[in-house]
Write a structure and sequence with these properties.
The complex is a heterodimer.
Chain A: H1 7-24, E1 43-49, H2 54-64, E2 68-74, H3 82-92, E3 98-102, H4 106-111, H5 131-135, E4 138-139, E5 142-143, E6 145-158, H6 159-164, H7 173-186, H8 200-210, E7 215-218, E8 221-224, H9 229-243, H10 255-263, E9 268-272, H11 275-282, E10 290-294, E11 308-317, H12 324-336, H13 338-346, E12 351-352, H14 378-387, H15 399-414, H16 420-437, E13 442-444
Parallel strand pairs in A: 1-2, 1-3, 8-13
Antiparallel strand pairs in A: 3-11, 4-5, 6-9, 6-10, 6-11, 6-12, 7-8
Chain B: H1 2-7, H2 23-54, E1 57-60, E2 70-73, H3 77-83, H4 86-118, H5 125-133, H6 140-151, H7 157-164, H8 177-202, H9 206-214, H10 219-230, H11 232-247, H12 251-256, H13 269-279, H14 283-308
Antiparallel strand pairs in B: 1-2
Classes of the chains: A alpha+beta, B mainly alpha.
Keywords (chain A): Cell membrane, Lipoprotein, Membrane, Palmitate, Signal, Sugar transport, Transport
InterPro entries (chain A): Bact_solute-bd_prot1, SBP
Signal peptide (chain A): 1-23
């Protein structure tokens, strides 16, 4: 406000700066006839990621591949502006060769023409990876990205307090609601969890687990079914808990929420497998007091079902790379070599996307992770969870708009403007409009 | 902004014709001012022109949209989309409401501080002047983060005290968030605007005060009848700046957004444009929204200037 430069000018300046920054880190390098390259003249690749400690895995790759030299550039997480930077860099013709892109955003990248077709270089790698994760990077039979990790959901909870209050880890959602009520009786300052209206991927995971999917294709049209009976049942369940004042409504992954984890103001979290590092990092004094249980199930469910937070994350090969072969080789190695996967697992990047995890020693024994959970091997829970992720979930080419719309509507509902059910109805309408505005074919259903 | 400064009333210039410069001198002048105009055109006019140009296009796909989109001319389509979007219109209403709260508050605070420091009995002037001005040195993002910590119950030392005293203490609720944002803005800029007014006050000849004192005027009356009318021009200036600033409200809600459910992604027009550009990769709609915001700020600030500068028929 006041008399500094007009904001628009500053925004333009910032955008220019972003452009310049992107220009400094182009995916340069000489085209090489074959991957592997020549140690004397190594192929240079640029890799953009925000995963903490991924530099270690990049160093391991560089040590093992003298013919390829990968330079890591750490950027802001995709949803916070990283994706915008990537798309701008692709437009400007100086994008990195490989970039971290969530499964939920791959269709958007494809629609924006930002992905490189690497089918010929990745032909033999499909068998290495879990099928549903591999498929997230495949469109129309062509490969554009190599899966890195998913975020299967589980229930993190303060076992010490649950034991003290005589509460079992909830097996069903009804148990979860009952536990929430008991916690409110036992301690006036404690809540079972927050309803994170700020966190679209989290709400989507709840809907994904509830049953019916939100997006599918019918011929050459998108079918939007956000407002469906399963999602409505899920929304009504959480709305009732909100009405009964059983939940906090602060944002998750925020300072307030971290403080509550430290002080016992919040004693549980339905979160992705990478969440273990978040709790360990932000509430170190609660070490040994946590445990992980499977995601609660809907009453009457015949098979155990779970979901994955925003799908997961991939290493996408971006349009305009000079070395698609070397880039693919790096992406495959980074996400499948046991040394690399072990490194990334400890850094809290999620659940490995490879089928054969027998070489991943950290899954059996991890002295940084297990003691925090009272010695529990939490990966057993997430392994079961990952196997139970519903496979028919599809991401639309407008996931950013979906997130913005859902969080805005859910925030309004938490404020008392309508209910969560209304929030999903409004999001359904917004998505239909959004897809039509883009010129796509849309059919609706319920 | 230079235009604003020239609009302020000045003593009429001496009637007379400026001597004509010889042509060679003119060439010199051109050489010296060229670098400025080149930079001005490149870094100021070109981006504005580009944004306006972008606002007339749109990207469309077809079918499932799993192929590259096509750029097509949209005419006024993006403007229609923006102006028929309830959320965007609501955000405009919100900043207008915010202006109604913030502009009078800001001008009153700045004027009160300036008059206090300018009064004959003020002590430690330099110290207070620096203290009041200090918040302006804090970048907006940092200021919003600092206040954010004070507004969030889990991290705020204030809230427990207020709650214990039975005072209202919900800074992030739907009804109070706008006031909380106004508080951050006022804290940041009141000191700066105060300095502008102090500069105006120091230009007032002392004889006027002496004359007023001889006539038996108290300090309060001097402030009301002498000082305030004579700093009319800087008052108008800071009002216009504050008005433009409020219409462009962006940083504070952006930083507070993760802390509260009361701020959504199109809380203010600028935030909506930012969200379209960097959240949803729709630079065309964002450009149209940004253009609309600029036009709105232009119309309102010049409308205000017209209102207060009507010759011989001043509002005050």
């Amino acid at each position: 406000m006041g008399s500094k430069l007009p904001r628009v000018v500053r925004m333009v300046a910032a955008a220019t700066a972003i452009g310049l920054a992107a220009a400094c880190g182009g995916g340069g390098g000489q085209a090489s006839p074959a991957a592997g390259g020549d140690p004397a003249q190594p192929v240079e690749l640029t890799f953009w990621s925000w995963v903490p400690d991924i530099q270690k895995a990049v160093d391991q790759f560089n040590a093992a591949h003298p013919g390829i030299k990968v330079k890591l550039e750490t950027i802001t997480p995709g949803p916070d502006g990283g994706y915008a930077k990537m798309l701008a860099a692709v437009k400007a013709g100086n994008a990195p060769d490989v970039a971290q892109v969530g499964y939920d955003s791959l269709p958007s990248f494809l629609v924006n023409g930002a992905l490189e077709d690497v089918t010929e270089h990745a032909r033999d790698d499909a068998a290495t990876f879990v099928d549903w994760q591999w498929q997230t990077g495949v469109f129309g039979g062509k490969v554009y990205a190599i899966p890195q990790a998913s975020g299967p959901m589980g229930f993190y909870y303060r076992k010490d307090l649950f034991d003290k209050w005589g509460i079992e880890a909830p097996k069903t959602w009804d148990d979860f609601a009952a536990a929430a009520a008991t916690i409110r009786q036992k301690d006036k300052d404690a809540y079972i969890s927050t309803f994170a209206a700020n966190q679209a991927p989290w709400m989507i995971s709840l809907a994904q687990q509830a049953g019916r999917q939100w997006f599918s294709t019918e011929g050459d049209a998108w079918k939007v079914t956000i407002d469906n009976p399963d999602t409505r049942r899920m929304a009504a369940f959480w709305q009732k808990m909100l009405d009964d004042k059983l939940l906090k409504t602060e944002a998750d992954l925020s300072n307030a929420w971290y403080k509550d984890l430290q002080t016992g103001g919040i004693v549980g979290w339905i979160g992705g497998s990478w969440g273990d590092a978040i709790i360990r990092g932000n509430a170190p004094d609660t070490s040994g007091k946590w445990a992980v249980a499977p995601m609660p199930q809907w009453a009457g469910a015949t098979t155990f079902t779970s979901a994955s937070w925003a799908g997961g994350s991939a290493s996408a090969i971006l349009k305009g790379t000079d070395n698609p072969a070397a880039a693919t080789e790096f992406a495959v190695w980074l996400n499948s070599d046991p040394r690399s996967v072990n490194t990334l697992l400890s850094a809290g990047y999620g659940w490995p996307s490879i089928k054969d995890t027998s070489q991943i020693t950290n899954l059996q024994k991890d002295d940084t992770v297990f003691p925090f959970y009272g010695g529990q091997n939490i990966w057993d829970v997430f392994k079961e969870s990952d196997a139970a992720v519903t496979m028919d979930w599809r991401w639309p080419p407008v996931s950013d708009a979906l997130y913005a719309s859902l969080t805005d509507n859910a925030k309004a509902a938490v404020q008392g403007q309508g209910t969560l059910t209304d929030a999903f109805v409004k999001t359904q309408q917004a998505m239909v409009e959004q897809l039509r505005a883009k010129g796509l074919n849309v059919v609706t259903g319920g | 902004m230079a235009g604003v400064l020239q609009r302020t009333p000045t003593t009429p210039a001496r009637a007379g014709v400026a001597p004509r410069r010889p042509p060679r001198r003119r060439a010199h002048v051109a050489v010296f001012v060229a670098p400025f105009f080149v930079a001005f055109a490149l870094f100021f006019l070109a981006p504005i022109g580009y944004a306006i140009h972008q606002s007339f296009f749109r990207l469309t796909s077809s079918g499932l949209g799993l192929t590259e989109p096509v750029l097509e001319f949209a005419g006024l389509g993006n403007y229609v989309t923006a102006l028929t979007d309830g959320a965007f219109l609501a955000s405009i209403g919100r900043v207008l409401l915010f202006s109604l709260i913030e502009v009078p508050t800001m001008v009153a605070c700045a004027l009160a501080l300036a008059l206090l420091l300018d009064s004959a009995r003020a002590r430690f002037r330099a110290f207070f002047r620096v203290s009041f001005f200090l918040p302006y040195g804090v970048p907006g993002v940092i200021a919003s983060l600092l206040w954010g910590f004070l507004y969030v119950p889990q991290t705020s030392p204030l809230i427990d005290v207020l709650a214990a005293a039975g005072l209202p203490h919900d800074f992030l609720g739907p009804d109070t968030i706008l006031l909380s944002i106004a508080n951050i803005s006022t804290w940041q800029f009141a000191g700066y605007n105060m300095l502008v007014l102090i500069a105006g006050l120091q230009a007032i000849p002392q004889e006027l005060y002496e004359a007023a004192r001889v006539d038996g005027a108290s300090e309060t009356r001097i402030a009301w009848h002498v000082k305030i009318p004579l700093v009319r021009a800087p008052l108008i200036l800071i009002t216009v700046f504050t008005l433009i600033g409020t219409l462009q409200l962006f940083v504070e809600p952006l930083i507070l957004k993760p802390l509260t459910t009361a701020v959504n992604s199109d809380y203010t027009p600028n935030l909506a444009a930012y969200n379209q550009a960097f959240g949803q990769a729709n630079i065309h709609l964002a450009s149209a929204e940004a253009t609309l915001i600029a036009v709105m700020a232009f119309v309102i600030s010049f409308g205000f200037l017209r209102l207060v500068n009507r010759k011989g028929n001043r509002a005050w």
